[in-house]
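Input record (one chain):
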Amino acid sequence: MVRFLIFFPVFLFSLELAPLLTKPKSYVRDFYLTEFIRETNSSVLAYKAYSAMYKQKLKHLKLLSKFNEFKNIYKCVNPSPKDLRNIDISCVLNNGLWLRSIARLSFDDLRYLYKNLPAGKEKEAVYAFLYNDFSKIFKNRDLGYYFILNYPDKKIDQLIDDFSIFEDNYFHLFVKSAVLNNLPLIRLSLNKLNYKRFNDRVKWWLFLNEMKFNNYKRAKKILLSMKKKSSKEYFWLWQLTKKDRYLDKLLNNRRVDFYTLYAHEEKNIPFDIRTKVTYNSIKNPKYNQTDPWDVLKFWDEFKKRKDLYSFAKELDSDESVALKAIVLDKSHRYKVNYFITPKIYEDKNISFKAFVYAIARQESRFIPASVSRSYALGVMQMMPFLVRDMGGDVFRQFDYKENVALSVKHMKWLFSKLKNPLMVAYAYNGGIGFVKRKVIPNFNFKGKFEPFLSMELVKYDESREYAKKVIANYIIYSQIFGKETTLHQFIKKLGD
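The corresponding structure, as predicted from the sequence alone:
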């Protein structure tokens, strides 16, 4: 972390900042503080806002760097090659050296770093790039993790005889990185491990490693050895064995997800799905879902309340329908599936309308005043930079009309570029660049166990799970809005 002391003359907060600082520390407040830093011309007030944040991030220092007194601090945590020699080396070291940045340095800059860095993993990393020698990086635990997690490039791929120094609570991250980034020599080395010694998180990635090598018999054994199995593991056991006992596990699961939906369709067994949850018995609901501060209070009470049915009754209004649906979900222990249909969007194209609702349900559960930890806003969770790029007002994103209108415009653009709803789902979460660079080149639509296996091997954790949930939502909403379609049909069309 950067440590620094800056002394400012004392003067009053601006009218815009003072009321904000009385609000509870949260991502909601951080969003407003971020926008305040962006707009203010006062370095003093900007620093006050920065200091008051719940979670300070690199982007906040970047915003502060518009003021001269903060420029060197930002360079310290995010140095460019041209600034490298003008910054105290201990400053850079304390904030970590990015391996991808090191990889782009010139020979002279690498030599400078190697001469000035103290002994440690960073110095060893610079040596590897300086002499193009990566043979020693998996001989040291810290150095090995440093590379496999931050620079899983083909350059580091090598046979490993002994994984013992990496076999700790983070080993699943090591295995995952080798599998997702397709490092064949490391992956071949992993095949020799005794999978029975590891926890379920490691076993899942060892299973996928075997699937990529077409070692289906060993892959099945790894799955069977897992202590706790979710619908994902039962789905794959069913795919590998075609045995009814694994299909039955999915059929007995009353919660809709990608895997259970596919299984329930196989036997034409419907889920308990409800679209109506409000009857407007309350004129003044306890919380207004269009007020971000009210939504914060709701989540705080939701964590504490035990009498959930009573809580749901207190929210029986169109002004809090999304909040009530969440409470009812938990009150039924997630055995009833609420796919509410608030009037956020209308379209004669049922497929597109269903996709909009599928995204909204996954992004915010239809709560208009949602703010994520990355400051995605509103029912469709639009990022502030995208709102601005599209000519929108970030402060009006809790009005679902503007938020949905901007999202639909963005979504139609994604469809014009990607066509495929699955790829659009990945792009809505991770960006179109991520899809073009990381998803499409590694994705198979046809072949044994496809596209299911490719879906398990999407690189970003959040995007990987996000798209599966969106597609399940999409099928359900398509059916709710009157289109006869199934997940089986959707999967089949992906390969056409």
